From TrEMBL:
Residues annotated as domain Plastocyanin-like: 37-122
GO molecular function terms listed in the Swiss-Prot or TrEMBL record: copper ion binding; oxidoreductase activity
PANTHER family: LACCASE-2 (PTHR11709:SF452), MULTI-COPPER OXIDASE (PTHR11709)
Name listed for the protein in its UniProt record: Laccase-11
Superkingdom as given in the UniProt entry: Eukaryota
Length: 123
């Protein structure tokens, strides 16, 4: 959520569901054994059949709020595609994240220069 002039705010949404910035990443939650960040009930098949050649979608098809994962056996072969917004790039280290305007006087003091996570996508 970004504060704009006149007390208004800009937020992102998909299917009229507003994006809420997570407090911790999924891999960080797994690494630090943080409970309550995700559930393991990601469906094996779509909950609703989608007609790709039919009329444009006009309603939410039952998108559930929350984060869910699928546990896969090591070396499994799968095909997944469920990330509508992200940017792929080269590997990089995330030394800081945030929402809103960057403050060059205050924000650099918050950088994680000790053990920043390495990533290859950002969204």
């Amino acid at each position: 959520m970004h504060d704009l002039p006149n007390g208004t705010q800009l937020t992102a949404s998909l299917n009229n569901i507003t994006f809420v910035m997570p407090q911790i990443g999924l891999l960080q939650a797994h690494y630090f054994n943080t409970k309550g960040v995700f559930t393991m009930d990601f469906p094996d098949r779509p909950l609703t059949h989608f007609n790709y050649t039919g009329a444009p979608i006009t309603a939410n098809l039952g998108t559930k709020l929350g984060t869910r994962l699928s546990k896969l056996a090591f070396n499994s072969t799968v095909e997944l595609e469920s990330h509508p917004f992200d940017l792929h790039g080269y590997n990089f280290f995330v030394v800081g994240t945030g929402v809103g305007n960057f403050d060059p006087k205050k924000d650099p003091h918050k950088y994680n220069l000790v053990d920043p996570p390495e990533r290859n996508t950002i969204g």
